Amino acid sequence: MIINLPEFDFERPDPITMAIAPLLNKVREFLDTKEVKRNGYSLGSELTAGFGELVIKEKNGFWLVYTTERGTNFDVAIFSNEFHAVNYFIFRLTGETETIDWSAI
């Protein structure tokens, strides 16, 4: 199945991979400004996820975005780069393309 998504305006500040913790902190700050409830998503691990939350995490060099419910993961999207994963994660939560200023990290 092919899913067409709108173009995103997320800009990667440089070609160096970002550390995971600062990246996820920036995502949380951004989602807070958009008033996305924290109980609707989990950053970094499904262990902190509740019932039917959207999860983003890194595993074995890949980034996963998926919904988890009662220990079952579904709607899994796999990305080779954290910025594409974050773009998709935020799109799934807000339904819109957004812009994040990554220069502060």
Strand arrangement, largest sheet? Answer: 1-2-3-4
Largest sheet: 4 strands, mixed
- Given the structure, what is the number of helices? 2
Q: Radius of gyration, Cα only, in angstroms?
A: 13 Å
Count of β-strands: 4
From the spread of the alpha carbons, the general shape counts as globular
- Strand percent estimate: 15-25%
- Contiguous low-pLDDT stretches (5 residues minimum) are 1-6, 12-16
What is the rounded distance between the termini? 35 Å
Helix-and-strand structural type: alpha+beta
Helix content: 25-40%
Tell me the number of structural domains: 1
Report the order of strands and helices: HEEEEH
- The mean pLDDT is 76
List the helices and strands and how they pair.
Blueprint: H1 20-33, E1 41-43, E2 53-59, E3 62-69, E4 72-79, H2 82-94
Parallel strand pairs: 1-2
Antiparallel strand pairs: 2-3, 3-4
